[in-house]
Amino acid sequence: MPIFNTALLLMMQADSATPPSASGPSALVEIFNNIGSVAEAVLVLLAIASFYSWFIILGKISTFGNATNQSRKFIRAFRKASRLQEISALTADCKASPLAQVFEDVYETYKRQTGGSGPPRNITPLERSAQTAASEAITALERRMTGLATIASTTVYVGLFGTVVGIIDAFHGLGAAGSATLRAVAPGISEALITTAAGLFVAIPALVAYNQFTARIRVFASATDDFCRELLNSMEEIPQRTAAAARAPEPTPNPPREAVERGLYR
Asked: What is the pLDDT of residues 178-220, one digit of tens each?
């Protein structure tokens, strides 16, 4: 077989012409010392991309953690509270929660309608405020996700660019040497493999993090939509409770707060 014979001849020439190469860390050091300018620029670019991607990843982990904890705290307080003013005082401590942001915007619209007490005159502006606030809260959580997706999808091709350049240099060295030996092509091949490995090293963590964060954002969006409906339903029940209280003949002394405000924040 001609191809097998040619490969065997190349290996025999390499074994007879070159000493055994170093392996392990010393081989890597030698590769980096002999790396070309194009591959060096590719590695620098990949290093910057890796630093930026980990900056985004660590920042998102902190942001999502705070949003989750504060959302749990806020929804527990929301369902236990009997007055809107009590919940409004809590929003200052739950700024990272998208639920608190939605409530704050809706409550501001409610105060413009009623002055802070009584049933809302029109529920439609409250619905619009809830939708706008929910969209803004989720958009804030999605900040820098585009950059993470770009790094995950492009750094592989940046590494492949270094690979192509390394292969071109390898064949150029093969033609300049005038003989088909591994000594002529090994530096370029090593350079190509280094840039490919670096591109995968940057892209894989960014891709995994992007998928995980996207799933978390979908959970936040679903929870925010559910909270909007719960909040608006509670406000729509205010006129019903007011009318029921007006029809009551004689209120019992010191009625339980849960009985009076039943249906407001369950």
From this structure: 555 666 566 667 777 888 899 999 999 999 999 999 999 999 9
Domain-embedded: residue 105: yes
HEC profile for the chain?
CHHHHHHHHHHHHHHHHCCCCCCCHHHHHHHHHCCCHHHHHHHHHHHHHHHHHHHHHHHHHHHHHHHHHHHHHHHHHHHHCCCHHHHHHHHHHCCCCHHHHHHHHHHHHHHHHHCCCCCCCCHHHHHHHHHHHHHHHHHHHCCCHHHHHHHHHHHHHHHHHHHHHHHHHHHHHHHHHCCCCHHHHHHHHHHHHHHHHHHHHHHHHHHHHHHHHHHHHHHHHHHHHHHHHHHHHHHHCHHHHHHHHHHCCCCCCCCCHHHHCCCCCC
- Higher model confidence: residue 27 or residue 144? 144
Residue 179 lies in a domain: yes
Let me know if residue 75 belongs to a domain.
Answer: yes
- pTM comes to 0.73
Counted domains in the chain: 1
Q: Which domain holds residue 94?
A: 34-237
